[in-house]
Structures are given as structure tokens and as C-alpha cells.
Design a protein that fits this description.
By secondary structure, this protein is mostly helical. It has helices at 3-35, 42-51, 55-67, 73-97, 107-196. The longest helix has 90 residues, at 107-196.
Amino acid sequence: MGEPAIKGSIVKLAEKATQEDVVSAMTSQMRQASRQGSEGLVRNVILGHITEERYDIAIDALNNYLNSKPEYPEFKDRSERYIKYSIELIQAIRTKRSFPGWNALNMSKQKELFEKALLHFEDLKATLGKVEVIEKEVRIEDVRSTVWVVQAFVYCVGALLLFAVLRELTGGVIPSANVVIESTSSEIVDLIFDRFKL
């Protein structure tokens, strides 16, 4: 094996080591970014799948998430475009991370692809954050509308009770009170006339 062959193999080993460094650096950055925030949120689940290169699972999870809230029809209407954009970002990340002819690219082009993939990853993270905000808003609106319905029901029941009390007063108690007042007043008048023999 000649000196040029040894230099060539050393250069290949160095390129492979740098390539692996770039890949591991990007993967660790993605892992760190996907762990930020609360556990269990859809953003963390999807970003975790992307970090581990499970793109199809991430896309299926997004589609399932979009259709998982039939009790909130407004959620699907408001978040569908963000979910579609997120799927496009996932496809872009997949393309950048598994670029065909990767080994033929020089180091600067490889870094450029990974930087673009990281930008897509951050954009995906922000977009999924918007979807989570939409979900919270829709839930709050649902609670508010439930409160409004309960308040309207209470006001209606109160108005019906007031109407019933007034009707009872005018239909039964007030005429009876009138009879009682008339008989009492006539007894008092009779008593006065009897006492004073007028």
C-alpha cells in the first residue's frame, strides 16, 4: 500500500469521523430541543419521533391527534393547516437527514443540510406549539360556553320560580288576604259600633 493510498484512507476516515460528529451533534441538539417543555405534550412526542428518525410514526401521530378531538370541531378547523405544514416540515427534515449521495457531498454542504434540517426542526417545534395553544383555547371556549349555558339555565329557572310565586300571590294569596282584610276590618267596625253604640 503506497503513501497516497494511506493518505486517501486517512482522509476518508477523517471525513467519516467528522460526518458522524455532525450527525451526532445534530441528533443531540434535536433531543435537547425536544425535551424542553412539559412532558406528554404532543410537541414532545412528535419531536421525539423525529429525533429518533421515526418519521412515519410522527406523521401518523399528527393525523391521529388532529382527528382525536371530535368533541371540539373547531379544533380541527383551526389547526388543520398547521398540522399539514408540520407534516411538510417532517418530510423536509427526512429529506435533509437522509439525503441521497450524502457521502459524495463535501463537509460544508453536509453541515449546510444539517443546519437546514435543524431550522426545519425548530420551525416544527414552533408550529406544534401553535397547535397546542389552539387546543387550549378551544377547551377554554368550551368551558366558557358550558358556563354560559348553566348561567342561562339558572336565570330561566329563577324567572320561572318568580313567575310562579307572583302567580300564586295574585291567584290565591292576595284574594284570600283581601277576604281576610275585609272580614277583619268589618269585625273591627262592628266592634267599634257595638262598643260605642253608634
